[in-house]
What we know:
Blueprint: E1 5-10, H1 16-23, E2 28-33, E3 38-40, E4 45-47, H2 50-57, E5 62-63, H3 71-80, E6 84-88, H4 96-99, E7 106-110, E8 118-119, H5 122-129, E9 133-140, E10 150-157, H6 164-188, E11 203-204, H7 220-229, E12 236-240, E13 243-253, E14 265-269, E15 272-276, E16 281-289, E17 295-296, H8 297-303
Parallel strand pairs: 1-2, 1-6, 2-5, 6-7, 8-11
Antiparallel strand pairs: 3-4, 7-9, 9-10, 12-13, 13-16, 14-15, 15-16, 16-17
Helix pairs in contact: 1-6, 5-7
Amino acid sequence: MTSLRIAFAGTPQFALPALRALLDSPHRVVGVLTQPDRPAGRGRELRASPIKLLAAERGVPVAQPATLRTPEAVAPLREWSPDLLVVVAYGLILPAGVLALPRLGCLNIHGSLLPRWRGAAPIQRALLAGDAETGITIMQLDEGLDTGPMLLERRRAIGADDTAGDLHDALSGLGATALLEAIDGLATGALAGRAQPASGASYAPKIEKSEALIDWNSRAVHIDRQVRAFNPWPMAETRLAGEPLRILRSRLLQDAGRAGDPGSLLGLGDDGLRVACGEGVVVLRELQRAGKRPVSARDFANGVRIAGARLGT
């Protein structure tokens, strides 16, 4: 196996399995690029990214430029002289000069089966669209938005109960394993990039918090997708008696038809709290009132009056 000098660019939790895999591989991680520390928490204290913390723990040099468009910002990467740059959810656009710097170019782990769901939120958009499967694509970066040649992909079915958090964790692990295979194939010449299909491209814009507000006039299938797509952030939200209420887990009630005015609570079953929608019925399984911890539907029903209540008001 050819041992490469690899630089890594990444920031959030999604990128951790990939960096760990590289650090534990025969390759040498010569440096890490990550976003500058950001204010976080109630105290708004500066917090390092998960990638920075892991790199520091393993003694890997770290650079945190706010941009990659100045010679000073790119200087650390030039000093590291990598054969390859691996980019995973980094958060900065790589200019042409950076893309051309490593001898073998730049590889990216993207959380979809390209060309479907190019962009910032592929996992959430796949859930909202009701896709039957998703996966990861190991691609070579070019100057476009997730348009570069593909080296390999790995698929995963989307289960009826899968949330964005579930898929996030599954795909980050899947991507780390596939990354090592792609690097070995690229280094030996066994893998070559292939152009993305000309048809089937779609764009996955970043999630806006306003998208998580539930409209109970919508179809139950759409509301269930909202709940799953927006867990863990920003969480699907409605109102009960004027107070905000988060919905963390849900399930469709199959073949329910129309059972009442949209938003009406239809009672508690073994599967959860049933709610009428514009079309069909959704079963709420886990809920969270403002300032409270998440609870099961049964515990929630024991703490509030649900007879005759209606969500969204």
